[in-house]
Records
---
Amino acid sequence: MFTEEQLENVVLEYFQELGYEYLHGSRLPRDIKEVLLFDRLEAALIELNKGVSLEVIREAIRKIRTFDTNDVFANNKVFAKYLTETVEVTEFVNGETIYHRVSLFDWDSIDNNNFLVVNQLEVLEKGGSKIPDVVVYVNGMPLVVFELKSASREEVNIEDAYKQLKNYMNVHIPSLFYYNTFLIISDGIDTEAGTITAPLDRFSAWKKINTEDTIIENRPLDTMMYGLFDKRRLLDVLKNFILFTNDAKIMAAYHQYYGMSKAVASTVKATQTDGRAGVIWHTQGSGKSYSMVFLSGNLVKHEKLKNPTIVVITDRNDLDGQLFSTFSGASDFLRQTPLQAESRSHIKDLLENRKTGGIVFSTIQKFEEETGLLSDRENIIVMVDEAHRTQYGTDAKYDLATGEQKYGYAKYLRDALPNATFIAFTGTPIETTDKSTTGLFGEVIDVYDMTQAVQDGATVKIYYESRLAKVKLDETQMSEVDKEYWRMQVNEGVENYVIEESQKHLSRMELIIGDKDRIKQVATDIISHYEDRKDLVAGKAMIVAYSRKTAFTMYQELIEQRPDWEEKVKIVMTANNQDPEDLAKLVGNKQTRKDRETEFKDVNSPFKIVIVVDMWLTGFDVPSLDTMYVDKPMKAHNLMQAIARVNRVFEGKTGGLVVDYIGLKRNLMEALKTYTSRDQDKVQENEQAKGIALNILEVLRNHFHKFNYSAFFGDSDKKRYEVIRDGAEYTQKTEKLKQLFLTETKKLKDVYKICTGLLSKETKEEIAYFIAVRSFIMKSSNKGTPDLKEVNERISKILENAILEDGVMVLTEATSNESFDLLNEENIAKLQAIPQKNIATNILMRVMKEKLKDVKKKNMTVSKSFSERFEKIIEKYHNRNDHLDVYEVFEELLKFKEELEDAINEGTQLGLSFEEKAFFDVLGSDPDIKSILQDETLLNIAKDLAKTVKEHRSHDWDKKESAQARMRLYIKKVLRKWDYPPNKEPKAVEDVLEQAKLQAANM
């Protein structure tokens, strides 16, 4: 066992190593009704405020001790102001009022402050006493409270620690938390920090120690203690990286602290050089808006910048409003009230005559034309949000028809503020093919990518599911459209530009996507899919429509199929004078949009599904939104920003789901290429979630293999109840069995939320059984045994969620593996039957190429031999001389497909895993070995190699020379154990090593 007391001792050792004084709570000379250490506080304030009388010091202490309310949040906010801005004390001397400012800390000379850590501090309040585990005092004030739980007790974790701190704060000893800067919860496995207002899912780990360090995973206590509790860093966080809004206290996460610290240094340097401070790339949903607030607050008070003016530039009115609202809520931290420019003339008024200070918001469109010089001051910082979208255009462009010279927004913005320093924020990466952003703003300052945000719990994983609706389109009618255009031009003299304008309004895409039958199919599928998921998280979903017209049609179709959804489904878009009256009534005005934003963000409101076209796709945060249905083509950063609407953290939400009705996958993969390499596989196929669910289900089936639960699937409610009750009894035979079951069913519940739309009715019923048993155990453990009615109601709800046959083709076969599997006998027959043999051949070649890429990741020997053959087939196709040659190539590809399939499946027939088969093929590729060693020996060597490599691989071993050298030794031992020919050993070792590295790179 590793007890709570032992973990407490570990924490105290860390603090002593960091130079903190340590005392047990029982040894502190104090009144247990008081949480301030008055002797230490008075001594510290006297030392820090030379020349201030003892009476003034004691009056400052009285103000710190005495508050006007009993509200923890209100008092904490007052104390925080004392902490960062001093305590103001008035003194009457000779009839004159003198104002003193008493400092509570020496922010510059850290060692002039008194750092003390105390354990088992007893606090008596409200007639009872409580003893928090560890309290950190600085200058006699209790600034940090730790609550610890045992690392070896499975039934307790940091959630229990969080609840205990909340009880202390809200019920038992609230006065301790008047002075709290932040809280720490830890069970030795997880260690997280958060403020007094933070929900549990907003507590977070601290994963770096020093600014230049890389992120450290799996050492949460180390990084928290050495990173956050370094004395200088602790005071820096207290002073510069904690802020209050009207109803919350917000502390910077580690990526915001280190990233914005670097940004401050880079900005100050840029004011003295070329004005290019750099680019901050923090992925969507990771708190970018508050990062901008933290940066602004630190720049405002930086001595070298002499009260700078900060100009915040966005490219959309809704973004401008949302970001302005965030900044306005933090006006105390910023020490001023932000201003928002309403017009081009207003931005001129706000900037032209301003000498110092100010935080001014403007959209970039206000610089659409030349404004003239607004200010030539050097202490102006221009902070640009989503810089990749509108910040190009410093060079002239010419209208080839008129010769008119035009510039982009960026040129006019820089002409207006020629000596300003520019810093850029982006939630999407800078495109690899376009250096304009870094050229304009400077190099990347800090990166916090999608993968890291998910690992840290700052965002949730995004899952992707393809549901391509079959498009029923009358090609004859499409042809008739073209003919009619032609007739109008020929017979009625309609000009080309009129036809072109008409084609824009009535594009083929609009006709295809907006086809009424197609929208009906999509709407039917959305209803089915939504009703399958609505009770699993929060029921909030967004439908992205192609155009205003298709959005309206979609709305009408949803209401026609579900008349009771009028309060549930609403359209959000700007008003348009061209809209039909019915649509205009639905859309409303600007106030309607504001009201709908508030309503949609309310988890409990009946407004659950919003239909949008462009609005709310960027900078719009609704944490409970978990599903996005996309029926609109999107690319690059627009696509990534849109799908990030579902990645926000929310209680009970394990992932956001993007459901694709338009065929986004290729664009999604293209967009991900500009992300960090580890981000590129983090938008996961929903099929992967399904695979995880089925694996867990198999574990549970094995767990219940001696228990017959088939009665659950019958018609008798009584028998269903009994098999749930008896199943709960069966799995609680031992604590170990119970914990295994509860752990696996918790994972199953989480992943089931994501992939329920892909599971069969039978599978969902079986999952429902195990979840029901889990619920039975949980409820009987906590609140007594549920009755028959309650169990039936809960189970019936899950059983009703069955997928409807709706004429929509669900294409989850999107990966290379699954595309290959799609070539079953039925589909091969279809390819053989179509007369367009070049199309059929190209489909086969594309699938084969993708499959070989996949094989290469797993088996270099098979990949090499088949790749060489494939290249010859491709060459033959490209060199065809006769239209009949393609038939020959097509047949060769079919034969190639079968042989490749056989080669892939050969390992299964031999009883080998993928890894084992790869080593078997590597060794067997030498014909001499085949004649020397029997297949049975090679099989044993392959299995031994796979086991050895797995046992001895360490993190990134395939990239480290020393680790590879050790791996060679292990490989040699295996070969010699099986009497592998010595003269063949050197090559075999290198080949096996290469195959092992290949496997490591693709894990």
---
Amino acid sequence: MLDRSHNAAPLPPEIARRRTFAIISHPDAGKTTLTEKFLLYGGAIQMAGQVRAKGEARRTRSDFMQMEKDRGISVSASAMSFDFDKYRFNLVDTPGHSDFSEDTYRTLTAVDAAIMVIDGAKGVESQTQKLFEVCRLRDLPILTFCNKMDREARDTFEIVDEIQENLAIDVTPASWPIGQGRDFLGCYDMLNDRLELMDRADRNKVAETIRLDGLDDPKMADHVPAHLLATLREEVEMARELLPALDRQALLDGTMTPIWFGSAINSFGVRELMDGIARFGPEPQPSAATPRQIAPDEEKVTGFVFKVQANMDPKHRDRVAFVRLSSGHFRRGMKLTHVRTKKPMAVSNPVLFLASDRELAEEAWAGDIMGIPNHGQLRIGDTLTEGEVLRVTGIPSFAPELLQNCRAGDPMKAKHLDKALSQFAEEGAAKVFKPMMGAGFIVGVVGALQFEVLASRIELEYGLPVRFEGSQFTSARWVSGPDAAVDKFVQANKQHIAHDNDGDLVYLTRLQWDIDRVARDYPDVALTATKEMMV
């Protein structure tokens, strides 16, 4: 986290009540189901649709692409804003699938905390570990939810140990499970010393819980069988001795994570997790920018684009820029300066999201995520301000790990393909390279599933069948250095040179040997695998 000193003046109440966070996890840990239940508890929807449910119940609110609905996976980050108690939650549901990690990485630049969802049977998985590393780089506070406790799960201490060892972070239990699998009855709330029992009757209803005081309450025996109660008392006592107590400052510093246990599909443990975010989660934090950082309580409005989504509504060729407000109180109709082009921009139709549903936003505050419909003026990394030339930093673009040639099924429609691909490049869904020599485009992605998503979207949204074919190149690197050295390098390596969608020079490689050769023969030329999307 950036500098917000412990004795800083309190934030204005409207900003202080905001909690902006992302949900991260390995695919299939139950992240989208948890998102649905958040909306249910926030009163934003009446019935949650699980990803794996049948028929109409399957229409989850955060998955709006056709492919997401067909396959039951999330492939695009989506944003949702709703009220919970006296707090305003801005929740970003990220793709769990590793093939879409770049979208997730960028999303993490726009939030103040992350909820890590892990599967009670599988523990910490590879993608969770990768995403955790990104959170660690940004010192993001993390709250953990151990899901699927109503299925056969691992020993609770084993799960806690695995998180501590694999992720090198202190874990403090906020709740403790009673039984597991079929015997899972609920949890003991260690923060409030009370019993929470799960109601298996109706998964979609906000479950009512029976609350008793303390582990020694004689009425405990009425609700928990003797053998489970004895185990619970013993384990809670051990946990209190062996594991650290919750320290909010350590949580905010990113060195401690509280863990809640529950079952998102049964709406259990969700309310306690939301209470935890409200009570212990961070308020809006400063944004890293140049020439100075931006504090949330500054009066002037600033915001930055961390995602662009084209064709959220297929009936209208719309492009919505997702903007995280870094400071100030925004009002509809305000004129903001688009720092990259230095032009004023009247923001007359800003929207707040409930996944693919939106409502016109009359106002928004620092910490909020709003959408600005536009026709291609806004790109990922753009900063909007009330006039001051500030550029938000730290939004990465990664070199693709897979490259393929892209051709239109109908050669007469090559121009349409050009437009479709440049739109997806601006959205951050793929890298599009135009080689200096030869025709066509080379498309680069982080994971193979992205090619399928691109082909499906180009056909659905542009009526343009395309095919992806193998390329002789395997990776791409951005080129930088003194002009004379770069010109000499380009002239000698034309068959490897391309331009990306921003017009920046790119060196296409076949083998690691190509990269080593450039380092040896052109010491003044730098090849980089990431590009800062600060424009």
---
Amino acid sequence: MGDWLLRHRRSVLFFLTLLVLAGVAAALKLPVALFPQVAFPRIEVAADAGNLPIAQTQLTLTQPLEQALRGVPGVEKIRSTTSRGATDISVQFAWGTAMNTALLQAESAINQVLPSLPAGTQFRARRMDPTVDPILGLALTSSSLSPVALRHYAYYDLRPRLLAISGVAQVDVQGGEQAEYQVIVDPLRLQSYGLHFQDVSRALADSNIITAVGRIQRHYRLYQILSESPLRTEQEIGQTILKSGPDGVVDLADVAQIRPGVVPQWTTVSADGKAAVLVNIKQQIGGNTVAIDHALRRLLRQDAASIPAGVKISTWYDQSQLITAAASSVRDAILIGAVLAALVLLLFLRNLRLTLIVAIVLPSVLLASVLLLYVFHQGFNIMTLGGMAAAVGLVVDDAVVMLEHIMRRISEHPGTRVPVLHSALELSKPLAGSSAATMIIFLPLGFLSGITGAFFQALAIAIVAALTVSFLVAYLAVPLLAEVLLRQKDAERAEHQGPWLIWLGKLYGRVLHYLLPRPAWILGIFIGVAALGFWSYTQVGSGFMPRMDEGGFVLDYRAPPGTSLAETDRLLDQVQDILAHNSNVLSYSRRTGLQLGGGITEANTGDFFIRLKSQRQDNIWQIMSDLRQRIHDEVPGLHVETGQLMEDLIGDLTAVPQPIEVKIYGGNPETLGAVAHQVAQRIAQVPGVTEVFDGITIAGDAVDIHIDPVRAALAGMSPADVTRQLHTLMQGQVVTRIPTGQEMIGVRLRASRSSWSQIQKLRRLPLLAPDGHYLQLGQVADVRLQSGQAELTTENLKPMVAVTARIEGRSMGTVMAELKSRLAQMRLPAGVYLQYGGLYQEQQRAMQALALVLLAAILLVALLLLYLYERFSVVVSILSTAILSLGCVFFGLWLTGTERNITAMIGMTMIVGIVTETAIFFFAELRDVTPVELSRAGQARLRPVLMTAIIAILALLPLALGLGAGAEMQAPLAIAIISGLVAEVPLVLWFMPSLYGFLENLRGRRPAARFS
């Protein structure tokens, strides 16, 4: 092999160079996003049937849809929320389901029951994936343009240009107003001419005609024949003929006022305290967020002249900034790690040529590994970049081990030329075994499901890709570079140890000679470290995903039930004043009656998105806490909740938006409401619990018009006739549309709002009977106020109320343990029971799955070691060392105040492979099991173990310290690995040889052959 490699060294190095260049090309094509593109197994169905009572909506709309969707193959859970005339249904499938097929099947199931649903029912079904929320949000404000003109520009001018940007999937426009013509009919004047509302509606529709009536051929040409009588202006609308006869004609202007107006809406949108139009840009699956942002900025610069005067376009949300900052942080972490690694190499080896080789190897490996990311359809995101940063120490480790071995072999034969490649090949088996030990631990991650598997499989692919390339480079390129660059005196200088290394080697030998004949000390060390690890485990809190500062957050608000839009706006003006005087706030946008994630929203609810300054004194969690407290103190009656956008997105995608969710099941909604109130009170008493919501959402008061069929029949009308007239008089009916420029302007037929603005006036509202006489609404119906009704929630067709809360300042596991203890003391009514959901439920599933992954990793490593050595004593020695290192990881987490979350668990799994890798190189050096030989092998591995551990620790230090945006996501992983590496050095060098010697002595074996 050495001779072959020597003959083909040019082609091998050229091949590796091609891999690096291909990696550079792939890096330019990889999609860039915040999180991996994951097909979340959830479909959301929203259906609207108009204004129906909640109970009737539940029976006629929600239940038929739930039953139809339950029959879709693969459905695991269905959850619905029913309000007045509308329902939101979340359909959960098993992970791995083909969601395109599932969506088509869900739509087919809904279409089959659509004819039996209330007339006019409309529905929308959508897949839930990371693209459901905008990646970029623009706010348009103007002091000169009207809300109608501002929305027109946003929708018809700006939106088409944004949709032309590559990677953009959808552009939503919120806010502003839409123009329409309003025909305000006087019912009494209408009666005086013997006309009905239907006559007005029919006349308007019949007068606004543009249609093809035929075709004619003449002189080799084909002509289309059009019959047209279009309406264009409000004057033409007023001249619409309603009636003609001997006495003349009656036109629309005789019975109605025609004036420009706007489409009625019960929402408000603003930005930085000013009325605004928001443009929300969503990307395609696999789109490049950063590229979309750059293209949009370029478009706005190029089209600056076409932007109407007085229009200001600002950014209220920009996900690309977080992605860019996170990528820069990871890049800086890699660079810092590389520089520190070079300094360590210089310190230990005191040779620039060796450092140059590592400086060549590290970027080459990382660039070539990008090619593998491209092959496996990955992209640049916070998980893959974090995986590459975490792999820096391991990559350097492979190169250092190979170089140190080559230097030692050269220095053993002074004055003679030692074949470098043959010396390097001596390390092929332990190098392959150590690389396999690190990579094999990621195999069980491929079987993980849920959000844990979805996110961390991307991290595992990035690390395995880097380690695969690192092995090839260390095995092929490093020896070739050493053959070219290194000289005999380089090896002699590198192998000449300084006084402190000599002193450390003597200390190591004395300690090991003391431990080898004393099994009790070995047992004591094992028990002591294991006890420390168990104690630390009990002290470390558990969590789910690491918290990350996104630079902005969502503030959801809820005014008291039934609060009008105007009163809600008044309350929110006070919130906007608080935000305007907060030095940490850069900008904000507000939606009332709407929300970022969609769903059922009343006029008293909505959300802010608050964007923070990049340079600020307080962290985002302190800002959110302070803001909540100020709103609580200064704006009584307004309930607020805070959360970061990506944090909420993950919750929405998994249908578990809150960390704490106590689900209360039962048959009686009133009983469930009472129990939910008690549960909320008990939860609020737990330290660390904030933003408690009892799960009861009141839809607001209603005016109930109960039509008496008998009285209506005596007047010659049916309840349906009365309802149709009420709909036309009050809400209005768009009877035709007029083309105006790029849009169609509706013509709305309605009565004056002053005629029904109060309950007493509503009772006197005039209705027109079929025989032409008028009667008041109060003659055929009872009009009364009805208190607000609670929205109804079900899960798997069972009535349910979900009490939710967030956690602040404490770990999830600690809070949930105390919360469960308090709720266990409750006496629940018969037929009522509790279940725990939310992110806590996801965390429990994830922790159980990761515990199995860790166990599987240990077993796979055991299998690999048994294959390499066929000795249980070696397997037990190495695995005992790895397990004790895991105990020290818990101590490191406790010492740094880090939660045991899923990122930390991945780090713990990696420690098993890293410790095994180091141990394999120790046994590669060992020739027999005598104390002298154990000491010699340990001293031979002392310097490389110290070097690789220090390099890996320093490379991970920037991530562990959470330096830069997005680094918090990988900090627990880095802390876990660093803690294990700190423990690895003494355990591998002292404990493992002592344990191995003790086990071999028990068996009475003295192997003479080396293990390599």
